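Database export, one record per block. Field names are fixed; values are copied verbatim from the stored entry.
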Amino acid sequence: MALKVRRDDLVLVVRGKDKGKRGKVQRALPREERVVVEGVNLVKRHVRSRGQVRQAGIVQQEASIHASKIMLICQHCNRPVRVGFRFLEGGNKVRVCKRCHEVIE
């Protein structure tokens, strides 16, 4: 299944412990249907030192969340929207806001 969000899209979390938070998509994982959103679903990891590169300790980082828990925020209407697809006259497939019918890009 193709994800309707891409890297650098602004999204809103609609379910879960981080409901209501907005953030930028850092990574999209289409095979797992998951995304990593900046500042959302923070977990603590215990990491080893890597010589002079990294110090050992507890690091807080973002974990992935399921794509069904987020909604894309349209740049035109600035609201969380559902996403549709449309083909342009050149044959290109583009994402479309279901609320204001503008092309998302």
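Remark 1: The chain has two domains: 1-73, 77-105.
Remark 2: The chain has a mean pLDDT of 94.
End of record.
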